[in-house]
Amino acid sequence: EVQPVESGGGLVQSGGSLRLSCIASGFTDDDYAIGWFRQAPGKEREGVSCINNRDGKTYYADSVKGRFTISSDNAKNSVYLQMNSLKPEDTAVYYCAANNFYCSGRLSPSSMDYWGKGTLVNVSL
To answer: What is the pLDDT of residues 58-73, one digit of tens each?
Structure first.
């Protein structure tokens, strides 16, 4: 069973940076994807970014493109989300999620099957 575990959240000022980490193992083959999703109070959960293990293809939500970067370290079973130029609207609980197939630019939460418990990112003015 795949159980993602994320960490790295915290309180930062607008314009600052934060790096989130996700550890996820237990995949049976090379066809899997890991992504980051977030949910702010009173809002629907939305996709932020994802990376496919098979081909390394990455996708980003328009709202974070150019500011966030997703990367992976297979030796450590880890995926990272480097967040720069943070804005108050980035404040949310960030979740790491995975599936056993692939992810696309749709970044749909419903496409993911395994979820971490979340880590809070709070960006102040």
So the answer is: 999 999 999 999 999 9
